[in-house]
Specification:
The structure holds two protein chains of two kinds.
Chain A: H1 2-78, H2 85-90, H3 107-116, E1 118-132, E2 140-142, E3 149-161, E4 164-178, E5 187-191, E6 209-212, E7 225-226, E8 240-243, E9 249-253, E10 258-259, E11 291-297, E12 303-312, E13 319-325, H4 342-346, H5 350-356, E14 364-366, E15 368-369, E16 386-387, E17 389-402, E18 405-408, E19 420-423, E20 428-431, H6 439-442, E21 445-447, E22 462-463, E23 486-488, H7 495-499, E24 522-526, H8 529-536, E25 546-554, E26 558-560, E27 569-576, E28 580-582, H9 595-602, E29 610-614, E30 620-622, E31 626-634, E32 646-648, E33 655-662, H10 667-673, E34 682-684, E35 696-700, E36 706-711
Parallel strand pairs in A: 5-8, 5-33, 7-15, 8-16, 9-17, 24-25, 25-27, 26-28, 27-29, 28-30, 29-31, 30-32, 31-33, 33-34
Antiparallel strand pairs in A: 1-3, 2-23, 3-4, 4-35, 4-36, 6-14, 10-12, 11-12, 12-13, 13-17, 17-18, 17-21, 17-22, 19-20
Chain B: H1 2-51, H2 54-63, E1 68-69, H3 74-79, H4 84-94, E2 98-104, E3 115-124, E4 134-143
Antiparallel strand pairs in B: 1-2, 2-3, 3-4
The chains are: A alpha/beta, B alpha+beta.
Chain lengths: 712, 147
């Protein structure tokens, strides 16, 4: 029995021990499951939280980008509005650090913030890394600072969203550039290699003086390039002229000078001798103005009236009649000078002999007429500065007039030469005895003839340029007053090769940023002319505009034959790596030239001025007939002869108000493109180009240079 | 015996929530994957439009008709040509996705023509084959670069 009881107890014990083991295992498994559940739950909730944080960050980031874009939009809108603090801050040198923007969120930003539950935080805009834009020392000498600069706009904006603070800082580059070309903008004509069109002063190699004149008139198929002006006192608003190169002489043949028989009647149509001041000659320096004088009598006994002076000699009744005569075909006529021929006056002058053969040389007048057309006797020309070694060429015919006798005071190379004139059949000899000076001072000659003159030296040439007192004075690059803090470093001819460097055309690449040149100022690059036209707004039918707004580069030819008729224009420079075609630029002023049109043209401001530059020095073809407020530039370094850089495809009644700058305009060809009708072709300067201070525009780049998004 | 029964019963009772949680976690991971893909796609679409010039952007949005299936967009078709396994994964993920882009003009008259709000909304179903029930939206304001 005892044995049986023990076996039963042992079995009970083993069963009890086995039952406890399962509980422990179950509790263990339950604990593990609890842990697993807890981790799963935690993972589940963290996952959801992570997604929420990610979404919030994305929403906050896009909102901040919109906030920053709104700030930038408001800066872009106001940057060029004069009188605002923003306008001034961009144009106040490089020491300004804060960009003063009075910012109010635009309605979409406010509404989006309300919709998303975002609190718009503060914003600030600063200038950073401001530095002035450089100028090539080969082109310019810096006399004073101007406002051209580059830098970065640093926009910092903050928001609070979902209990977290977010901020965004972006840096966008910008440039402040002039809307016109420094120094060159002051010129109505800037031909820096014009000497290539006059490689010899006379003959077939003189392609500047090519308009045949007879009776002071040019044939209908020739039209000189005549410059007009706005003011008879203020020379700056008439524009300046440079005919280069700096060390080469240019001679412009003046026209006409002989009047009809009656002093009150003038056959002057293109007569130019009013441009010559008595100060040009020592013997007439005391006279204020040349008058109409009888030089001698022609073959019919009629007085030959010319612009000149009568200078009394020592003996009573003896006069030296000085007459200025221009280039005109009839001076070779047998009866023009009465009993005399032009050879009687000038046969010994080497300049005359160079002009005489071929004989067309005596009738060829200049294609350039720099001071306008004289229509009233008291008109002294539109005053303007003419830079370069530019001389006016004409004939000075002197006649010794005594009672019952008169002889030419002929050219003689002997400085000690004098004459005595037989009178009354040789019964008496009249000495040529001036009150002051010598025979040489009074004798006939080709003024600014071109042949070397040991007798006259520098005085052989009369500069075309006249100062405010109408004294003839040579003006060269050191005499230039400067523009926008800049002066030419050496000569005017050195400016364009450095400022407009040649660029090799590669369809896929942007131009190199040549420091110190106009290329450093480029804000936008266009692959084709069509891309540029679209971006400028010409193809927008609803809101046609032409916005250049700085310096832009077009990597190929530009065809603007359709013209620019809108007045919604933002000025600037269009650099074209190729040829340019340009139709009318009328700015809604229209084609009729009346007082209202001129008043509107005169009001065109510098910030609306358009400058088209052919960087490769190729042709600019003008297909229209009205151009208001346009400067055309085409330069190519290393030329050895003239090239076609401008053409007037419709030269009929052309009006061009602005400036032309190129190496060689090919004047002989231009005078045939243009059609001569009354006041047409009409070339004048845009007064705004003469402003003391150039206008500037601010270009803010679209790319972001630095982007920092922060979550706190 | 009772102990074993109790233990099995307890285990069964305890394993139910664990299995449920595991299933939900799988579902949640799937949903999170869908959500993240939707947000990335929405961001991509929005970035593409924001990178365009102002007028081009407005014209591009207005020329399209929405909603569109993601798989039927030109950009998606270009993307799936890049690699076989990648294109399979993309097609699998986006097979039921739709998206819509809307433009809202500003309420102020002076601002019209200078800015507009872009909203990109991506919709997808909770379960494959079901109609789109979930949405994710991103908003941004596009400004005229040349005011």
């Amino acid at each position: 029995m005892l044995l049986n009881t023990s076996s039963y107890d042992n079995r009970q014990l083993r069963t009890t021990a086995k039952g406890g083991f399962i509980t422990v295992v179950v509790v263990g498994v339950l604990a593990v499951m609890l842990l697993l559940s807890f981790n799963l739950y935690k993972r589940y909730s963290q996952q959801a939280k992570l997604a929420m944080v990610g979404d919030q960050s994305a929403v906050a980031r896009y909102f901040l980008e919109s906030y920053a874009a709104d700030i930038l939009w408001q800066i872009r809108k106001k940057r060029n509005i004069p009188g605002t603090t923003l306008f001034e801050s961009f144009r106040s040198g490089t020491s300004v650090s804060l960009c003063p923007l009075f910012y109010l969120p635009s309605s979409p930003i406010r509404e989006l913030a309300d919709e998303l539950g975002i609190n718009i935080g503060p914003m600030v805009v600063n200038f950073a890394t401001l530095e002035t834009l450089s100028y090539s020392p080969a082109a310019f000498r810096i006399d004073a600072a101007n406002e051209e600069k580059k830098g970065q706009l640093v926009i910092l904006c903050e928001i609070n969203y979902g209990g977290r603070d977010y901020s965004l800082e972006v840096r966008q580059p910008f440039k402040v550039v002039m809307t016109a070309t420094p120094i060159l903008r002051k010129f109505i004509l800037f031909f820096d290699q014009l000497h290539l069109e006059q490689t010899e002063p006379c003959g077939v190699r003189d392609k500047i003086n090519t308009i045949p004149i007879r009776n002071n008139r040019a044939p209908a198929q020739y039209a000189p390039l005549t410059l007009y002006g706005w003011d008879l006192v203020n020379r700056d608003i008439n524009g300046q002229v440079f005919l280069g190169a700096d060390n080469h002489e240019i001679r412009l043949n003046l026209v006409g000078g002989a009047f009809q028989n009656s002093p009150s009647e003038s056959r002057a149509d293109l007569e130019d001798l009013w441009q010559i001041s008595p100060s040009a000659f020592d013997i007439t320096s005391a006279i204020t103005e040349f008058d109409q004088e009888e030089l001698l009598k022609d073959s019919h006994g009629n007085p030959l009236i010319v612009r000149g002076a009568s200078i009394p000699m020592t003996y009573r009744g003896h006069y030296s009649r000085i007459g200025l005569l221009g280039f005109s075909d009839e001076i070779l006529d047998s009866d023009f000078l009465g009993n005399f021929k032009i050879e009687n006056f000038l046969a010994a002058d080497p300049s005359f002999n160079s002009l005489r053969y071929p004989d067309f040389g005596m009738k060829q007048a200049s294609t350039l007429r720099l001071f306008g057309n004289r229509v009233l006797e008291e008109f002294k020309g539109f005053p303007r500065d003419v830079f370069g070694k530019v001389y006016s060429r004409f004939f000075l015919l002197a006649f010794f007039d005594a009672p019952s006798i008169g002889v030419p005071i002929a050219f003689n190379p002997n400085p000690a030469h004098s004459i005595t004139v037989p009178q009354y059949g040789g019964a008496q000899n009249l000495p040529f005895r001036p009150v002051s000076g010598t025979y040489t001072d009074y004798m006939s000659r080709v003024v600014s003839g071109g042949a070397p003159s040991s007798i006259y030296g520098e005085k052989a040439n009369v500069p075309t340029n006249r100062d405010a007192e109408f004294r003839h004075q040579l003006l060269e690059s050191p005499d230039f007053a400067g523009s926008d803090g800049l002066k030419p470093c050496r000569g005017f001819s050195d400016i364009t090769p450095a400022w407009f460097p040649a660029v090799k055309r590669n369809p896929d690449s942007r131009p190199p940023i040549t420091a110190g040149s106009v290329l450093e100022r480029v804000s936008k690059f266009y692959r084709t002319g069509e891309d540029f036209k679209k971006a400028a707004g010409l193809k927008d039918a609803e809101n046609q505009r032409f916005w250049v707004d700085g310096v832009v580069y077009v990597n190929g030819p530009l065809d603007l034959s359709e013209g620019i008729t809108t007045d919604n224009i933002r000025g600037g420079l269009v650099l074209v790596n190729g040829e340019i075609k340009l139709g009318n630029v009328t700015r809604s002023i229209g084609s009729n030239l009346n007082a209202a049109a001129f008043a509107a043209i005169k009001k065109i401001q510098l910030d609306r001025m358009l400058t088209f530059v052919s960087l490769s020095g190729q042709k600019i073809a003008l297909t229209g007939k009205r151009y208001y407020g346009v400067q055309l530039l085409s330069f190519r370094p290393g030329l050895s002869g003239p090239v076609d850089q401008i053409s007037f495809d419709d030269g009929n009644e052309l009006v061009f108000i602005g400036g032309l700058g190129m190496n060689t305009p090919n004047l002989a060809a231009i005078s045939r493109h243009l059609k001569n009708r009354g006041i047409f072709p009409f070339f004048n300067f845009l007064p705004a180009l003469a402003a003391d201070v150039c206008s500037y525009t601010v270009n803010i780049d679209e790319r972001i240079e630095q982007y920092e998004f922060t979550v706190r | 015996m009772i102990e074993i029964t109790l233990a099995v019963g307890l285990l069964a009772a305890a394993i139910l929530p664990v299995l449920t949680l595991t299933m939900r976690s799988t579902q949640q991971t799937y949903a999170m994957e869908q959500h993240i893909m939707a947000s990335q796609f929405a961001a991509g679409i929005l970035d593409r439009y924001l990178a365009m010039p102002f007028k081009v952007c407005a014209d591009a949005i207005r020329s399209e008709s929405y909603p569109q299936k993601v798989c039927e967009t030109e950009t998606f078709k270009d993307a799936i040509e890049t690699g076989e396994s990648f294109s399979e994964a993309l097609q699998h993920t986006f097979r039921d996705f739709e998206y819509e882009v809307t433009v809202s003009e500003p309420s102020s008259a002076g601002e019209r023509g200078e800015m507009f709000k872009i909203t990109v909304t991506v919709s997808w179903p909770g379960n494959p084959g079901a109609p789109p029930a979930r949405q994710f939206s991103l908003n941004a304001v596009k400004f005229n670069e040349n005011p």
